[in-house]
Design brief:
Number of helices: 9
Mean pLDDT: 88
Order of helices and strands: HEHEEHEHHEEEEHHHEEEHEE
Low-confidence stretches: 147-151, 372-387
Structural class: alpha/beta
Shape: globular
Strand content: 15-25%
Strand order of the largest sheet: 4-11-10-9-5-8
Radius of gyration: 22 Å
Helix content: 25-40%
Number of strands: 13
Distance between the termini: 57 Å
Length: about 375
């Protein structure tokens, strides 16, 4: 690949890949050069990224759902010889695993290894609602939220007074947090642990009344969760958004294990019946708006196992893969390194300025507490260090 501009190589590979992925045709593609090096982005590559609007130019009129390009791609060559591949997609056409499959195909084409492609499968009817559509489950994630005394029903997406901040959890932090859990929960996944922690801290930080309800919504990949499984190569949307709901008081008064249990139960509730039920709900509601983004809801998606870090366009694997920031109430769990070179999980949070300060303080308080001491199966003592 020496002497070639990565944008030229990728654009050619993209055109070849779109022959197979023809529903994505009509891509906006931008070739760019930047007078900066990778090192100038800092020692630890974590969201939010500075100057991201220059790394993925927002082409006027390209953000809509209808009558707009489905993909916007920009390839920016850096002064050091590296490059940044940035992509924005219309989420109605595919999900994160679908994007990974598509981008991997483009990369294989760029390397001249077309035989390594996964053949795309459309088959959208496999996740259709039944006929007639029947809602068989409760879907708290799509409840219409009524405003309480302090609850805002507007999304952070439309608030100019918000800040983005990324929080890193390496082996030390994760090990410490596990010690706060009762023995039967200490084998929970890292994602379950961090989701519970951030949901708890966020719910306390947004300054709601103790009796008000808060939701934790998890993006769950359906590909390995339903029977029969979706065919290999399916690249459409195949995820659900099951939700846990509780009150601020319950999260505040109970130890971290309470939130972990709710996260685990929510993940376990996901099934093919859930997918059919939520599809039926969407059909019955018709074109009425679906309300997910309110400040009392925390939405999170785990991208750490997506595998995009293995994508190689011919110049080697990426040093960072992930979303550039949080999107309103939605956060993404991505793999990253800290300044010490430790591999861990980075999660960006978006909150109003005062709430972000409280969130950081709540998180700091949790990490400074002493572990729980088991008294019996249901009782625990939680003590804090004094300064």
């Amino acid at each position: 690949m020496e002497g070639k501009h990565p944008a030229d190589v990728i654009r050619t590979a993209l055109a070849e890949t779109l022959v197979l992925y023809y529903p994505l045709a009509g891509v906006l593609f931008i070739k760019a050069d930047a007078d900066v090096t990778l090192e100038q982005f800092g020692d630890a590559l974590q969201p939010p990224f500075p100057c991201f609007d220059e790394l993925l130019f927002d082409v006027p009129g390209s953000q809509g759902i209808l009558n707009c390009p489905l993909l916007l791609i920009q390839v920016t060559r850096l002064k050091c010889g590296g490059f940044i591949f940035a992509i924005r997609l219309n989420h109605t056409i595919c999900d994160a695993p679908g994007v990974k499959q598509f981008v991997s195909s483009v990369a294989a084409m760029a390397r001249g290894e077309a035989t390594h492609l996964i053949l795309p499968v459309w088959e959208r009817h496999l996740l259709d609602a039944g006929d007639p559509p029947r809602v068989t489950l409760n879907h708290n994630e799509y409840d219409e939220v009524e405003a309480g005394v302090t609850t805002r029903t507007t999304s952070l997406l439309f608030d100019d007074n918000v800040v983005q901040r990324s929080f890193f959890f390496g082996p030390t932090e994760v090990s410490l947090l596990r010690r706060f859990l009762p023995v039967h929960l200490r084998h929970c996944t890292k994602f379950e642990l961090l989701t519970a922690l951030l949901w708890r801290c966020r719910s306390l930080a947004i300054n709601l009344q103790p009796h008000e309800h808060v939701r934790m919504i998890i993006a769950v990949n359906a590909r390995s969760k339903i029977e029969p499984p979706l065919p290999h190569g399916y690249y459409g949307n195949a995820f659900g958004l099951p939700a846990a709901i509780t009150t601020v008081k319950n999260l505040s008064d109970n130890p971290l294990g309470y939130a972990v249990e709710l996260v685990k139960q929510t993940k376990a509730s996901f099934s093919k019946e859930y997918m059919k039920s939520v599809a039926a709900l969407m059909v019955i509601r018709g074109k009425r708006p679906v309300v997910l983004n309110v400040i009392s809801s925390f939405i999170i998606s785990d991208l750490t196992k997506l595998g995009l870090e293995d994508v190689d366009f011919g110049w080697g694997k990426a040093v960072f893969v992930g979303t550039p920031n949080a999107i309103g109430e939605t956060s993404f769990s991505v793999q990253a390194k800290n300044k010490k070179g430790e591999v861990g999980t980075s999660i960006a949070i978006c909150l109003p300025v005062p709430a972000m300060e409280r969130f950081a303080q709540e998180l700091d308080n949790m990490l400074q507490q002493q572990p729980i001491i088991k008294v019996n199966y249901n009782e625990f003592i939680l003590s804090c260090k004094t300064k």
